[in-house]
Amino acid sequence: MSDVKVPFIDLKQRYEEEKDELEACVKRILSSGHFVLTPEVTRFEEAVAGYTGARHCIGLNSGTDALMMGLMALGIGRGDEVITSPISFVASTGAIAHVGATPVYADVGDDQNIDPAEIEKRITPHCKAIMPVHWGGRMSDMAAILVIAARHGLAVLEDSAQSMGAWMNGRHGGTFGFAGAFSAHPLKNFNALGDGGFLLTDDDEAAKKVRLYRNHGLEDRDTCVLYGVNSRLDSLHAEVLLFRLTRLESIVSRRRHNADLYRRLIRAPQVFIPDDPADPGGRANSYVMMIVQCENRDGLRDFLRQNGIEALVYYGTALHLHPAAQRYGYKRGDFPKAEAQADKVLALPHHQHLTEEQISYVADCVNRFYAA
Ligand SMILES: Cc1ncc(COP(=O)(O)O)c(C=O)c1O
Description:
Aspartate Aminotransferase, domain 1
């Protein structure tokens, strides 16, 4: 690539912006001499519960663990089916497979989120839960999904890995169903200094179980009441996230502004940008990614690269077509929308540090590519 003029994301710039506060977080934790399950973790959990309106927040090691623990808290395992989206990061399906259940896909809509009408067709007597994914930060149609879940007695576990800061009808993503699983990976809006995650739930029993499970099932130092794992959110991450929660609204609004600018400036009809869901507050997207669907995607990606713009394919393979999914017997053609989108998707550079000049430059390159 020629010199990078517009990076996909710029975490070094984020460090520069927050240097004093981040270094103070590190100092506080180092000088306390305590690093695991300290009051910082509890303060983080209370702050996130307060922000999102959830009754419980449990800090964990990753979004993947949060998904697995949400499924386990529901008692989902061998012989059970979970309906989910074929468009996501592999962890959504991986979590279902890890608890021994079977992922059952339902095709997506134009917005790349699971299509409620397709969910209904996939329900069998083995189905126990629906796992929608708020892909890129755009909320799934939770109203329709909750109606279907109630009609069939199914639980809803939201893959909210990307939806911190997304609200719909006054409710935060991840608080609509039984539980919501969040990632605090560095590429998210609300990010730790490495891997991290958390689970939101209003269910007291589930919260208790997950709290035990993340810490070896230890009720106290000497009493193990169930065999769990080590999936604790480190105190350093909790302290950084506690600080970053104060920045979240501003980050989402800067990203929304950037997304609006892209929408206005990209004029090529070969590029489709899904609408954001109707929401009275206009906040039903946390804008973690700016994924467009375009003709001749690889040609555009290469052209952008030649012009110093980092655009990435998220993702070029629908989940049912990965080698690991072969055991479920899916084949090409099963989910036509997801498959067609996998050939067209391109994530444009999208972060809160982009300047209007950079966005205009990207949009101009996109328009020029199709005009040629
Ligand atoms: C939609 C989705 N689900 C699950 C995950 C897994 O989260 P983590 O990387 O924190 O385990 C991610 C992370 O990229 C994600 O984007």
